[in-house]
Design brief:
8 helices; five-stranded parallel sheet; 228 residues
Length: 228
């Protein structure tokens, strides 16, 4: 934030903090005119109702795009804020000149944070989308059909090179820590990069783009506030 010229504030709570304490801080930030974006770092401790916490954030400051009304607006193709990680992936396609219209896209993972909004954005861009998950039969067969393959399942190197269609564009959303402490994605980069026409690395791929799009959403929120 500082590097981009943004004012930011960070509040850290104990893991056993009372939910009321967090709700009070969110209410305070909702009412603060100098704050244009609020995000809560997930996951939350088990005694929190994460959905209730996210819904407590004012819609016009929900720069993560996680509130139900923002999710619904995304479904209709008119999002107020696009969730940052899928937003970053769409920017990759844009910058790489990838035409999504008519392409076969496979999203591995169905989380509310990445998988579902990613599928919606790809669909709105004209792709034919398949969402795979833990109950999917023959994951490899689905992946091999994909012109666009997005891995967002949270399992280290789950997608290997023999599961990637030659020439496919691969977006690796996963961030996993190996026993030796190194980070890796959901895709086995070494084998997949031999087959894919474009692949994002981990680290250094989707992660920085997620932060960038968070700042973009916050800037958009500030602009809306100024125009109002």
């Amino acid at each position: 934030c500082a590097q981009a010229g943004f004012h930011s504030e960070k509040y850290v709570f104990a893991s056993d903090a009372a939910p009321a304490e967090v709700f009070a801080k969110i209410a305070e930030l909702n009412a603060d005119p100098k704050i244009h974006g609020i995000l809560v770092q997930l996951p939350l401790p088990k005694h929190f109702d994460a959905e209730a916490v996210l819904e407590a954030i004012a819609a016009e400051k929900d720069v993560d795009g996680f509130r139900a009304e923002n999710v619904g607006a995304l479904m209709q193709g008119q999002p107020c804020f696009i969730p940052c990680t899928p937003y970053g992936a769409m920017k990759f396609f844009e910058e790489a000149g990838v035409d999504l219209k008519g392409k076969e896209a496979v999203v591995v993972g169905r989380s509310n944070i990445v998988g579902k909004p990613m599928a919606m954005l790809l669909m709105h861009a004209g792709a034919t989308v398949t969402v795979c998950h833990s109950q999917t039969r023959d994951l490899k067969a689905h992946c091999l059909r994909a012109d666009i393959l997005v891995a967002a399942v949270g399992k280290a190197k789950m997608i290997t090179g023999d599961m990637v269609k030659p020439g496919a564009v691969v977006i690796d959303v996963g961030i996993n820590r190996l026993p030796d402490g190194k980070l890796c994605g959901d895709v086995d980069y070494e084998s997949a990069s031999q087959v894919a026409s474009f692949i994002t690395p981990v680290p250094g791929g989707v992660g920085p783009m997620t932060i960038t799009m968070l700042l973009a959403n916050t800037l958009e929120s500030a602009e809306r506030c100024a125009n109002a």
